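Good day; I would like, with your permission, to put a structural problem before you. A protein sequence and the structure tokens that stand for its backbone fold form the material at issue. Thank you for your consideration; the sequence and its tokens are set out here:
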Amino acid sequence: MRRSAFTVLLAIHVAAAPALAGGSAPGSYCPLPEPGQKPVCLGEARATYTDYFTALDAGTVADADAASLEAAVAQGAAAEHAYLALSSLTHGYYEIARREAARPEQDPEVALRLARWNALLERAYAASPDDDGYRAAVRRAALELRERAPLQVPCHDDQGAAAACSSTESVLRSIDAVESHAGLRGALERLLRRMFPEGES
């Protein structure tokens, strides 16, 4: 009976958690280049998201140009081109933020686009609990953007109130929250196993 009780409790707990995204896409993250250098690892990404990079190079990225890229990032590690999409979005974010920082006044539409991309990075991380490599890449991307592309964008503070964040500050806060939840979930599962050892019937 104890084993059955444990199985039921664990099933209820897992069912209450967000659905897990399956699969892992091959590839690796293309980091931001050093100042004054051009990235040498974006060739495949440019070939996959040609319209996006063409618009980015012209400085006129529209919603339609980024639609397929954004859809891929939203899927996280389960996307067909997961790392290419993540790298593309990160490099685009970096270029747009650098250009915006050089303007005398910030364009509110650009701030909203970057805020939406922050939300996509958060979603990509949360949607990929079974892929530690991809999650590490998302964290690295967020850290690089926070350090290399600081720009004020709309976000929510720790209490959920509307605020302004520096670049990917909100993304990293969300990642930390996901990790804390995962740690708590793991602790609960270990506690349940101690309470209801699987070997007992």
Q: What stands out?
A: The chain has one domain: 2-195. The first strand starts at residue 152 and ends at 156. The chain is about 60% helix and 5% strand.
